[in-house]
Amino acid sequence: MSAQNYDRFKDAPWFKPLKVIVGGAGGIGSNLIYLLAKMPYRIYIYDFDVVEAHNSCQMLGGFTNIGKLKTRAVRELAQKLSDNYGIREFGEYTSEGMVDDIMFAGFDNMKARKLMYDNWKQYQLTKVEEPAIEEPKKEVNLFVDMRLAAETGIIYFIDSKERMERYEAELFDDSEVPDEPCTFRATAHASMLIASYAVAGLVNKVTNVEWGIEAREVPFKLNFELPLFNMKTIV
Hints:
Low-confidence stretches: none
Shape: globular
Mean pLDDT: 88
CATH class: Alpha Beta
Strand content: 15-25%
Distance between the termini: 36 Å
Number of strands: 8
Helix content: 25-40%
Radius of gyration: 17 Å
Number of domains: 1
Structural class: alpha/beta
CATH topology: Rossmann fold
Number of helices: 6
Strand order of the largest sheet: 3-2-1-4-5-6-7-8
């Protein structure tokens, strides 16, 4: 990516070369990856599914990619629109999947979401503390869980042991998910909105770490209902 691509925000406190792992390249994931690709991030995408007619309308890129792997379609479009060639694609996310400090779960099922979270949690809890140094290490540790149901959504931002416990108390099995019509499970505008707020949470977290103070809000949970224009944050 050329330096000119960053001219509008290169002095932002969150402008950092970070590594980001994204699980899911559908409605939420495709929009999220496009936004992340506009930044100097290395992005690793996991998804084994292909673009089909019934889900193309909610994805960035859409109908022209039918039959193509979602990861391939999203990577190619993100590169074309952002000139970011630090994007890599992988298949299904498993227990052996890549783990790092910043991870986004945009899967369409709880099983995959919980698997990615468990990997991230174990990675965080087993880190070896480095000897004390004069300048604290500016490390951004964040797990973002994004859930969408047509015109409503939930985002969790997990960045501490206390939030891990609260988040785990709200996890549930796929069998408990209400059976909604497959023709009204996601919309493009809601997918874009949830992706935007997810990125906002990341840049706020990066800013707080960079400045060394909690200057920007990173809620534990954000709920929105577009039909009512209702949005609620829980800290």
